[in-house]
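Final paragraph of the annual report: two paired records, presented back to back.
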Amino acid sequence: MAGLKTQKNKASVKAFLESVEHEKRRKDAQAMLKLMKRITGLRPQMWGTSIIGFGSYKYQNTSGRTAEWFLTGFSPRKQALTVYIMSGFSTYDALLKRLGKFKTGRACLYINKLEDIDLSVLEQLITESATYMREKYPD
């Protein structure tokens, strides 16, 4: 059985961000890069061809295989800026009520543009999730 398709790699984060066609999405992604660097204190790395991740953790999937994934990250997708909140959203109801305009998936926060949300609340959400993931999956 093959491993995860999305792997950490040595591709250039800067080059990837410069290649984002939509100017507003590119500027929002550059702002997210600065925000996540400051929050995590970690160096960004490309994961696959379109995700910028910070840090990593190892976990065992349901089939018993060990895999590696990032603590937090984002991707400037065509439809939305996707922020990965790896701890999920079940304990963040109060923060989400104050965040602004967004949609969620299982561990994805979809933001149309950064002006739609409260950046201080987003910072708190990312901080709490990254802290939780570091505690749950210590090296």
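The closing record of the year follows.
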Amino acid sequence: MRVPQNADTIFVKGITDIWMPIGHGEGRMLTSDRSVRDSLMTDGRVPLQYAPHYGDGTPVYPENPNGSERAVAGLTDATKRILGLMPHPERFFAGRHGFVRPGAHPKLPADATVGLKVFQNPAGCFS
């Protein structure tokens, strides 16, 4: 997954690419019209998008497993303090949880703990 440059929420601070398991078989992000979809993107309320494994471009199945518009994998509310997402960072916060051997893929961090950062970022606001 990738974090769009204008993502404006504490949850993804310091993250550009992130690997997370996907544990959903249904559901996808759809909007009523293009203006809604565009405003979510321009307002920085899309903190995560599905991304192709290699290179750039618009991901398709299996990288965008449910066909979400604009490859949206997560959204925030208007305050950007509430995050809803389809992938599961809680399933990949230690190297032993890896579904790909750490270091075997160029975008996978060697320590494979980036999923934990999604939880540590907001927790750091209160310590």
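The chain has a mean pLDDT of 80. This concludes the annual technical report; the extension proposal builds directly on these records.
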